[in-house]
Amino acid sequence: MLSPEEVRKVSREAECLYSSTQVQSALDSMASEIERDFSEKNPIILSVMTGAVIVAGHLLTRLSFPLEIDYIHATRYARGTTGGKMNWLAEPKTSLKGRAVIIVDDIMDEGVTLSEVIKYCENAGASEIACAVLVEKQHDRKNGLKADYVGLEIEDRYIFGYGMDYKGHLRNADGIYAVKGF
Fold this sequence. Notes:
3-stranded antiparallel beta sheet; alpha/beta; 4 helices; 182 residues
């Protein structure tokens, strides 16, 4: 567990990659695309906890069509900085059978978590599945997985803010930042 002083030091030394204004503009663009594609489909917005809670909150207020909201809690990080075994902590309460589902997540890094959530939705009978991520890292380790809606692209660095964390902290940073020396 990091001390408050350690968290403040990481935050203070971080490089701002995207300001709050830039993130809000990206969310506006994502919402416009989602509205175009799903306004007549009454989709289920499935937020991947915990990282997507902030992204989903900001994105949902921009959508003006009928939809339902649920969440799935799947994680590989457990407050660390590298992914491990997939842990399923909560499944959606809403039936996905025959429904259009938009999976919302904070980041597409290697796509392991997102790939597993997609498989979950397919097995639950979703009729259509789309993925929306605030940030997509630019590298070749995604195994061909691509998000349908991407707010921002970023180089392969360790980042935090707008739902993305550094060792369980800094999800609430108002912008997207790169950890120094990581």
